[in-house]
Design a protein that fits this description.
The structure is a homotrimer of 428-residue chains. Chain A has 428 residues and is α/β, with parallel strands linked by helices. Chain A has helices at residues 3-13, 23-33, 96-100, 130-135, 181-200, 216-224, 258-268, 286-289, 324-343, 368-380, 387-394, 398-410, 422-425; strands at 39-44, 48-49, 52-53, 57-67, 72-75, 90-95, 103-104, 126-127, 140-150, 153-161, 168-174, 206-212, 232-238, 246-250, 273-277, 298-302, 346-349, 382-386, 414-416. Chain A has an 8-stranded mixed sheet, with helices on both faces. The first copy, chain A, has a 4-stranded antiparallel sheet with strand order 5-4-9-6. The longest helix of chain A has 20 residues, at 181-200. The two termini of chain A are 28 Å apart.
Chain lengths: 428, 428, 428
């Protein structure tokens, strides 16, 4: 899919009322399943996940605010941002004064509907433009919020694309925002298209995609997959990739992980404008992946960081705001990072005591340069040096090293460096 | 106690004949007990302590040198420096020529009595001014040294001031010098007043004070307290704090321990003149605390380093030499170091898997800056980062971090990082 | 032996037909045994050694190429380089065209016989000058190669010279080249003379010499001596030490091992021209010693690196090429490196808890500088600091530190730092 097609997909997903639970999440994941074989997981409400508990499921049937004549002035049907996300049900006549505490608008952006949530504090409310709010001058209004918060399930999507090795890169994007285009849909479509391309051309690393509701989704996935964490060597959170002309890469907590060095290198050679930013424990799900008990080395790639643009978390973050070219360029860049990480695979010499005998395996080359390439890989493959590292030390091109490493792998002289036995490490 | 009161206390301690053992040490410790609840330990002579043995106890009844007419020319009663410290007993008529090997004076400082000891080699002798020595022109003199070197006890004082946590700072000062004011009494009174202030306002770290005879005292304490060493995170030797206008901080053996960094920082922001000096395995008891089997990370704070001033180890290091203001300023600075070390307490996130849920604990703040403060502490509290470190990385003020850390501690989200279980680690 | 005597010994070894196995190796080792008590090891053909197998033994009775009139045109008897090393037996009449694939000459060096081997691929052949080859214009030739490749033994020589401590330096040189003077004989005679001198004046470190056939010899030695590797702290490969005016030191894989620092320092202060070169996994047996499962920290000292001079691996690398002065200078330099490594010995304070009591051992000096020297050694001797390191940190001269360290060793206060108990560590 090119940028225009990704924009078209985003347009299809845009009207759906997503939240951290509920039918909107399932509808979104079902649309993604048309393109990639995503597994949709269901976790019952009430399930403990680390310090959290999976919340009740939220369903919206309708929600409106009307004057006493029955004119619906603010209606969820018109824009799903109008309803406070996770609003509890409420029906009744409310005085204008009492209503005010339940209204959310932006005085500085009088034409924008804000996006507000109240997942963990029971509340009802409407989000509306400042202009709408100003027009509510009567003394009483009728409120009808027909929502439900009941035990149900929590959903997220997951897809593991097997690479040459079982070691993994984790790509995570959030799927819990309703009609917000850059913040949410851009990450979803870029991740989807990245997965589709990798299915066509399998990568070196296996790549695991998770499409999760923010915070609680990442925490739920982590809590249910603790035994998988040791296989994940790099993680990247995708979000806000559909606008702007500058990439922002936020480093992992360590600031010097492979994902940090590789992404910086890819950006540097990409020709794109970019900025590298240090880790801050705020923002998107990199917060969870970089928590001190998890330490997944997760960076975050965006073009419009958390809270830095006026359209952020308002109805102005819409399909007009979203740029097809940005989506396309972002997808390319994510692909380059995955390729570059794969080229970084480290190996372990299986015959580290002296040199193995190349001749008996048909690897002793007439060409001394070719022998030297084998010997450098054998000498430095102790699980810590990637082909990049070997290239830097030996002066041999990455391309030549890749050819030689493949031959050494095929001959069983080196293995991919991982915590599981060689044979099971290589996907077949 | 302000500087003048500390000087007054020093004046009271000044005439006492201290040594590494004996009644002078006990008298000194008893005076300190009037102000702080010091425990006085007694170790029998002959007790092996690492490579050493606790020596016999030394008692002086009287000691004088007289001419044959009975005129007492040099008398211990006049100045306790006159007697070679640890002098063995001797009585008899001695020729001027034989006497000479038992006399100690300073040709370059003809009015000063030197301070000399002979703890481990049996010897008798007198210390006197060069002028006195020159006046000894007769052919014979009478010597009467009524001392005793017999099995007894070795004493030192110890006080543990419980802080918020059981982890400790060790403050050590020597108490074995007789009438020497800066070298000995200044450290004693500064340590005493520091302890008194901490008893009034408990610190974060627990602070252990040891008032020990030099070398053998530190070694004895170490030998008897090996199981306590792992709780001591920082150590500071106090000495020579009563004169001069420049602080000298001698670094620990590592040169980059927390005590080194914190003291340097405190000095830097103190407005005082100061010098940082590298570790040398000479000087005061930091020698023992930094020995390769102990490695306590001990710095030494002084204003007049070992052997660098003419009054050093002579009768000129007296009460006129000692400056009240220096004692006061030194006490302030030591207090600042202890406070700064306490602010350096590191913590451990008790919910390190993803972020803990702040909302259900009433910690989710309306103010994003406050939330971010919580999140930085939670993210970096893996037992290695102090609040200072977190301040440096996050740009958040130490004051704000302290408030937030206290709230996280109270909520049970973090614990102080120590080698013992959280509940017992915190003193109650 | 001076340079001329070493050259004379090389002249005696020069005509012998060495290879990786066979009588030439044994004859060579027997001549070395006249000077040093070398142990000659025999390993049966077929023995597995890591990834390799000890090859069959090669014996040459005669080998010649003659015209049909019986004129022997190329004869092993005239120069042992004429026969392809490890040539299989062959007898018969061969057309000039078929013969060509079995001839090896150097078009660019028409007067030189090349040195060629075929250890692991069965082949027969002759090496000859380009001029000889050009003169072979008849249509048929008679070939007679009377060699044998049968189960036998593989030999190498080994000598351990006990030093003050059991920790070892490994000196390795290859002995598998037939009539090649610089590449092979120079290393052999320099290593031999180095051993002879150390037998006369025992070193601090024990020094193990191995005279091994290249590659398979080092691998065989390593495979049979794995338990000894932990005692080897430094390794040096000697080769090509008989020509040129510039030393080349090729660093170990780490590039910062003690052997690298010490050899660089020795070269720097030697007055000789020299070059330091980074590790490359090609060259001589440092390849094996630096393999990732072995990691012996092996450097390689040469004056004419691998393949960089036109005489390399040709009949021009002969006794005229070899310089007596170069052999002498090289022997001196290797001795200096061994001495400097020995001076690098690290120690461990046996009384690391506080300071040991110097006085009771007669080590408490009147001179404070002498005491300080003792204290620096005691303080830093935790097994990681050499006297060089202590000199650098304390500013005390290496000479003073050596005197003091010897006294502390004699007093039992420090021990040489090694992985075995002190008493057994010191050779008696």
């Amino acid at each position: 899919m090119n940028g225009l097609e990704l924009h078209k997909l985003a347009a299809r997903l845009y009207p759906i009322c997503r939240s951290i639970t509920g039918p909107g999440v399932r509808e979104t994941l079902a649309i993604l399943q048309e393109t990639i074989p995503l597994t949709v997981e269901s976790v019952p409400s009430g399930t403990p996940v680390f310090d959290w508990v999976v919340p009740n499921e939220w369903t919206v049937r309708e929600a409106w605010l009307a004057d006493r004549k029955g004119n619906r002035l603010v209606d969820f049907k018109n824009h799903n941002l109008h309803l406070l996300n996770y609003s509890e049900p409420f029906c009744g006549i409310v005085s204008r004064a009492d209503l005010d505490a339940h209204l959310f608008s932006l005085p500085d952006q009088p034409d924008a509907i804000p996006y507000r949530t109240s997942y963990y504090r029971k509340e009802w409310g409407f989000c509306l433009t400042e202009n709408q709010r100003a027009s509510l001058t009567e003394s009483e209004y009728e409120v009808s919020i027909d929502t439900e918060l009941t035990a149900g399930v929590f959903n997220y999507g997951e897809l593991l694309i097997p690479g040459r090795v079982q070691d993994e890169i984790l790509i995570s994007t959030h799927i819990c925002h309703p009609s917000l285009a850059n913040d949410n849909l851009s990450g979803i479509v870029v991740a989807l298209e990245t997965a589709r391309r990798l299915l066509a051309t399998p990568p070196n690393y296996s790549v695991r995609f998770v499409f999760v509701p923010g915070t609680i989704g990442a925490i739920t996935w982590l809590a249910r997959n603790q035994t998988k964490l040791s296989s994940i060597h790099h993680a990247l959170v995708l979000t806000g990739l559909g606008v702007g002309n500058t990439f922002h890469y936020k480093q992992s907590r360590s600031g010097n992980a492979a994902i940090d060095r590789v992404t910086a290198h890819v950006l540097q050679t990409s020709g794109s404008r970019y900025q590298i930013e240090p880790f801050v424990p705020y923002g998107y799900d990199e917060r969870q992946y970089n928590s001190p008990g998890i330490l997944l080395d997760a960076g975050c790639l965006t073009r419009a960081p958390y809270g830095t643009y006026p359209e952020y978390h308002t109805s102005l973050d819409n399909l007009h705001f979203l740029q097809a070219e940005a989506l396309e360029e972002s997808t390319e860049l994510v692909g380059s990072v995955i390729t570059a990480l794969g080229a970084r695979q480290t190996f372990r010499n299986r015959f580290p005591f002296g040199e193995p005998q190349l001749g008996k395996r048909g690897l002793y080359a007439a060409n001394p340069a070719e022998n030297l390439t084998f010997l450098w890989i054998l000498n430095l493959s102790d699980g810590t040096n990637s082909l990049d590292d070997i290239a830097a030390r030996s002066g041999i091109s990455l391309a030549d090293l890749e050819v030689a490493a493949r031959r050494l792998l095929d001959a069983g002289l080196i293995e991919t460096a991982a915590d599981f036995p060689c044979e099971s490490a290589v996907n077949k």
